[in-house]
Amino acid sequence: MTDEGTTAPTASTPQDDQLTYDVVVVGAGAVGENVADRAGRTGLSVVVVEQELVGGECSYWACMPSKAMLRPGAVLAAARAVPGAAEAVSGTIDTTALLARRSAFTSHWDDASQVSWLDGAGIALVRGAARLTGPRVLEVTSDDGSVVTLTARHAVVLATGSEPVIPDIDGLVRSAPWTSREATSVEDVPASLAVLGGGVVGVEMATAFADLGTHVTLIVRGDRVLNGFEPFVSEAVVGSLREIGVDVRLETQVVEAHREDGGVHLRLSTGSVLVAEQVLVATGRRPATADLGLETVGLTAGSTITVDDSLAVKGVADGWLFAAGDVTGRVATTHQGKYQARVVGDVIAARFGTADAPEPADGPQVPGSERPAAAAESAAGAWSRYRATADHAAVPQVVFSRPEAASVGLTESAAHDAGLTVRTVEYALGSVAGAAVSADGYEGTAQIVIDTERGVIVGATFVGPEIAEMLHAATIAVVGEVPIERLWHAVPAYPTMSEVWLRLLETAGL
């Protein structure tokens, strides 16, 4: 539905210098693709703008390549923990094969298949850097300097993700450190690597490169890694990192860096000097909003974009500007960004979609719309598909460290901070038959946080080998606010690790 006489540009059609669509999505990563897909389902014309590769950070430099790099080490560790399989395992990881499989998952950094998907879905693509010039109007500058002006009839969605932050350490920038991009696209594995930061990227990449035979030093400013998890997660992960040869240095900072003789020299707060062939900075990310022209619509360039639960940007009149994913500063995971994308796409479709979109006879109103929403909210109005309420109470996260760490909802500390009256119940996963069968000497922990006033689980944490797939059951319990008495009737199969749910409930006194 472009203006009469114009043609929606695709990868193979020429671009006019002025184009109009119903919806303009800035950023063609996983979040932007999902926004475009959901928003276009009721007849709206949609264009996405992407400066780099269609598919974004997750597909090429984050989720997919990093997990492909981590999987061989996890498989080897699992096999070595089972007599009968352990005897069949010899040698070490084949670096060439691992990196080849990694590159296959990134399509060798070629986005042709992603572009083809856009074409098949009827979503137009304009390549270049987009910048707002006023309400509903953007200029897109391509690599060759040509400029296309895009106008949105109804909505603009900003989904440009985030970018790594290099801390202000003397000489660090000049030493040409890696960020997660260089780490996950590595071709020549360094003999030694210093990793700065104990978050998800730091822990996962320390694990991956240790598996590849690199001597890894993990430098963490605080007293534990994975600070957003329960403290027992850090204890387990740090212990395992050290077992696989990672030199973990807690409560340590880099105060100066310089590169010489093929290595980077790091002066540490402890007074010692560490020399590594390469340095990976994994100390945090910031919203990629510096060059979006936010100031032209009354927002601050480079800032987090504050949104309400419908993902509409606060402080912008007329409800035309939305944002989703890392730029909102709410939750920096791909799956939660895609969840937000589905919400905002549905909001836009319900508010601005064509008359032949499905419309139930009744139901709550989408803000700014005279049309009923396509699904009724719960009695409390908390779980409408048009509200990203899971951002506040039910965020799942998995770290593919060894052991894996997974959590959803609130930690015990966060629950207390929220004013809830809670008790925690913990159980050793190694005491569950399913875990004992899966690996000799299995070690892991499961914990739930129970809101004692309502009798529901508000948080769950797991740490142990191969526990990632256990998380969704906990997520359903938290999102569904399932009374723990009712969970007693959810019988886990035997012998599986999920039997820990029975043990947790027994420990809780049920």
Automatic annotation (TrEMBL):
<dbReference type="InterPro" id="IPR016156">
    <property type="entry name" value="FAD/NAD-linked_Rdtase_dimer_sf"/>
</dbReference>
<protein>
    <submittedName>
        <fullName>Dihydrolipoamide dehydrogenase</fullName>
    </submittedName>
</protein>
<keyword id="KW-0520">NAD</keyword>
<dbReference type="Pfam" id="PF02852">
    <property type="entry name" value="Pyr_redox_dim"/>
</dbReference>
<dbReference type="GO" id="GO:0050660">
    <property type="term" value="F:flavin adenine dinucleotide binding"/>
</dbReference>
<feature type="domain" description="FAD/NAD(P)-binding">
    <location>
        <begin position="21"/>
        <end position="340"/>
    </location>
</feature>
<keyword id="KW-0285">Flavoprotein</keyword>
<feature type="region of interest" description="Disordered">
    <location>
        <begin position="354"/>
        <end position="374"/>
    </location>
</feature>
<keyword id="KW-0274">FAD</keyword>
<feature type="binding site">
    <location>
        <position position="326"/>
    </location>
    <ligand>
        <name>FAD</name>
    </ligand>
</feature>
<feature type="binding site">
    <location>
        <position position="67"/>
    </location>
    <ligand>
        <name>FAD</name>
    </ligand>
</feature>
<comment type="similarity">
    <text>Belongs to the class-I pyridine nucleotide-disulfide oxidoreductase family.</text>
</comment>
<dbReference type="Pfam" id="PF07992">
    <property type="entry name" value="Pyr_redox_2"/>
</dbReference>
<feature type="disulfide bond" description="Redox-active">
    <location>
        <begin position="58"/>
        <end position="63"/>
    </location>
</feature>
<dbReference type="GO" id="GO:0003955">
    <property type="term" value="F:NAD(P)H dehydrogenase (quinone) activity"/>
</dbReference>
<dbReference type="InterPro" id="IPR001100">
    <property type="entry name" value="Pyr_nuc-diS_OxRdtase"/>
</dbReference>
<dbReference type="InterPro" id="IPR036188">
    <property type="entry name" value="FAD/NAD-bd_sf"/>
</dbReference>
<feature type="domain" description="Pyridine nucleotide-disulphide oxidoreductase dimerisation">
    <location>
        <begin position="395"/>
        <end position="501"/>
    </location>
</feature>
<feature type="binding site">
    <location>
        <begin position="197"/>
        <end position="204"/>
    </location>
    <ligand>
        <name>NAD(+)</name>
    </ligand>
</feature>
<feature type="binding site">
    <location>
        <begin position="160"/>
        <end position="162"/>
    </location>
    <ligand>
        <name>FAD</name>
    </ligand>
</feature>
<dbReference type="InterPro" id="IPR023753">
    <property type="entry name" value="FAD/NAD-binding_dom"/>
</dbReference>
<feature type="binding site">
    <location>
        <position position="284"/>
    </location>
    <ligand>
        <name>NAD(+)</name>
    </ligand>
</feature>
<keyword id="KW-0547">Nucleotide-binding</keyword>
<dbReference type="InterPro" id="IPR004099">
    <property type="entry name" value="Pyr_nucl-diS_OxRdtase_dimer"/>
</dbReference>
